[in-house]
Design brief:
Radius of gyration: 17 Å
Oligomer: single chain
Order of helices and strands: HH
Shape: flat
Length: 73
């Protein structure tokens, strides 16, 4: 992490959590924004493909950690 006054003020764990939640918020906002335009312009569905792919990759990446947590405790 860079030497940033804001990051130092809220600590590393909170900074990571802020970016995780912010990333999902942006993903949700873009999905809604593009999704509501599909009925008028079907080509907007093409913009949803990368968003869905990113979400799927994030869920797949988190799956092994979640399974390990369940097994150990």
């Amino acid at each position: 992490m860079r030497n940033c006054a804001t990051a130092a003020a809220i600590r590393a764990r909170a900074w990571r959590r802020l970016h995780l939640i912010g990333g999902y918020y942006l993903l949700f906002q873009f999905t809604v924004s593009f999704g509501k335009r599909i009925p008028d312009m079907p080509l907007y569905a093409l913009f949803l493909i990368p968003l869905i792919a990113v979400f799927a990759l994030r869920m797949i990446a988190m799956a092994p950690r979640a399974q390990a947590t369940v097994r150990t405790g």
